[in-house]
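To assess whether ligand presence alters the predicted conformation, the chain was also submitted together with uridine-diphosphate-N-acetylglucosamine. Input:
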Amino acid sequence: MSTSVEHSPVVQRDDDASIVVRGGGPLSGTVEVPGAKNSVLKLMAATILCDGAFELTNVPDIADVAIMGDLLAAIGVDMVRPAAGEVVLDNTGRITPVAPFELVERIRASINVLGPLLARCGEVRLSMPGGDDFGARPIDMHVAGLEAMGAEFTFADGDLEARADRLHGADITFDFPSVGATENLMTAAVLADGVTTIDNAAREPEIIDLCEFLVAMGARIDGIGTSTLRIEGVTSAELAPVRHRTVPDRIQAATYLAACCVAGGEIDVVGARGDHMAMLLDRFGDMGLELTTSDSGIHVAARGRSRSIDVATLPYPGIATDYKPLIITMLAVADGVGIVTENLYPGRFRYVEELQRLGADVRTSGHHAVVRGVARLSGAPVRAHDIRAGAAMVVAGLAAEGETRISGVHHIDRGYDDLVGRLRSVGAAIDRT
Ligand code: UD1
């Protein structure tokens, strides 16, 4: 296998930036929801499967898209942005099945090149992030599934290598509906010899988006949107590039609903898909938010203080773990006591310390958090530890008296397309410095 990788420019992080929130509200007006990070990165990876120029629209302007673009450029798929919200990915057919460490380590979704590269090239070398990260977010289900399809793996010096002359179909049953493993096996199965079934597959809206993209390319997939996917393999020559609109981002949409909840007011979250957020909207209704969904989006009104609820995170259609920092922030200023149970990433409560700095009464024990609502938080300097926690800090700033200064903004930039501008446009007192 060739190990030479042509390096493309690595995206720079805005490490010094901070976001300053000085309360604000009530909110009013319209905010538009961009495409989903957790979909577009997977659509981009799937362009490895066949030659030609793919057009993606409703693409969020976020750092992770740029990083994935650099990763694909190193592999042999060039990305250009002809207009705002659009990218063209040109698969030249000269694919190097090697993913360089400095890009792979920066986004979890880089694992999504594994299945397409192995299926297309019969070999792949992927650098893995350090041991601790690997341990915290394992890829054993990806590996076991690809092994069942005929791949052989070796792990050495932080690199993963896999080979398979041609993958073959297999019957795979997950013990947990992993999003990433479903995507990787599905995209690999598109070019495998024969039929692959994936039982207990994840069925998030972003997975459906990827299925629809693959089917438009010429893939044969049955059971889309269910927990049993059946994929009949084709050859790369039977696939063709397509133009595709990325599904709207339900987590960004939820962020604006949460902002309205704590700041009060009434906004239209345009482009949000209520059907992709049904269970969350039910629970937000239980908290007292007035929500109306339509083809154009979600209208939300927050009148008075919200009520506490108990929530547990689960795979889709359950409440997504990525909503949790937002929910805990909403509960921090709700009336009553709420218990939040994390079922996907036990111990993922690091941002709670930051909320406590703002005066929130949150106690964690194992995979539970008990949140006792207080009337108002009070502003302080806080740090964004990851994308979702960072957005929750911004929402917390809207629930606080005085100034909240959020550092670690590069985390927010990974997944949020102009969070500050969008919140300011609906009346929040927020700036980026
Ligand atoms: C994706 C999302 C992430 C979201 C998560 C769950 C992207 C880029 N990220 O992550 O924002 O929080 O879904 O909705 O789309 N697991 C294993 N072995 C595996 C694979 C997963 O044990 O081989 C475990 C993970 O450690 C975790 C759980 O399964 O505890 C969920 O992981 P998974 O659904 O695979 O999430 P990701 O695809 O990593």
